[in-house]
Design goal:
It contains seven helices and nine strands. The protein has 242 residues and is α/β, with parallel strands linked by helices. It is globular, with a radius of gyration of 17 Å.
């Protein structure tokens, strides 16, 4: 579920974050601005009230502590008095140890099932994770599970039709049919990203369809867009239980 594969899952010797890439520093700065704007969307949707601390579960937390944009929303939640729980397929216990007020739920190891009861949280917060859970069927199942554990869902994911693909930092080729895109990535030595289990970008239309399929009539569904570099770069799903 995490946006950041571990060194074990990513091919040996490869740098997932492309830290030596000339665009990385620019990407981190842009990412922080975009994620702050998305967080403001959540604050407006959550209708925060004095004296009532919402319960929030962050799903897909990354164990990374190096990039400034990693888990930035956890710190923003803490700043407004919310102590979030976190859950990931990776070991994020270190994040809970390094950020006081954060509680880690151990990975259950059984697919998309999160080891908590139905509607245990007011909100589930999921940032840049949907594109990493697998094919369309798995993405729908993932959304259904998010809706099970919380009264409301806030999810962000990159827009497939932005001109720049932010994982590979390559422009336009992700607009090609999937089979052509995969072949080009493999030819460029980026086979990890050619695997649908590691990266499957969605469009606004797909996200709406998947959300409706997963959450059904029990939720009111709204999808917003965040613009950066001249086009909608990120999709934001806000789903409230009726």
């Amino acid at each position: 579920m995490s946006e950041n594969p571990t060194s074990e899952s990513y091919p040996s010797g490869k740098d997932y974050f492309f830290r030596r890439h000339p665009l990385t520093d620019i990407q981190v700065k842009l990412s922080l601005k975009v994620r702050w704007r998305m967080f403001l969307f959540w604050k407006m949707a959550a209708h925060l009230q004095p004296g009532r601390a919402l319960t929030v579960l962050d799903v897909g937390t990354t164990p990374d502590i190096e990039r400034a944009d990693s888990n930035c929303h956890l710190k923003w939640l803490l700043d407004i008095g919310i102590k979030p729980s976190i859950y990931s397929v990776e070991d994020v216990s270190g994040i809970a140890q390094k950020i006081p007020g954060v509680t880690a739920i151990p990975f259950s190891g059984n697919g998309n099932r999160i080891p908590i009861d139905d509607q245990s949280y007011d909100w589930v917060f999921c940032s840049a994770t949907l594109e990493h859970v697998g094919n369309s069927e798995k993405q729908i199942a993932f959304l259904r599970e998010l809706g099970r554990v919380a009264s409301s869902v806030f999810l962000t994911t990159p827009n497939r039709y932005h001109w720049l693909e932010f994982h590979t930092k390559l422009p336009f080729i992700h607009w090609l049919p999937a089979r052509w895109h995969k072949k080009i990535l493999i030819w460029l030595g980026l086979a990890y990203w050619a695997d649908e289990n590691n990266l499957r970008l969605v469009s606004k239309k797909e996200l709406h369809h998947f959300s409706s399929e997963a959450l059904g009539k029990a939720f009111e569904i709204q999808i917003k867009q965040i613009f950066s570099l001249g086009m909608p770069s990120n999709l934001v799903l806000i789903a409230r239980r009726k």
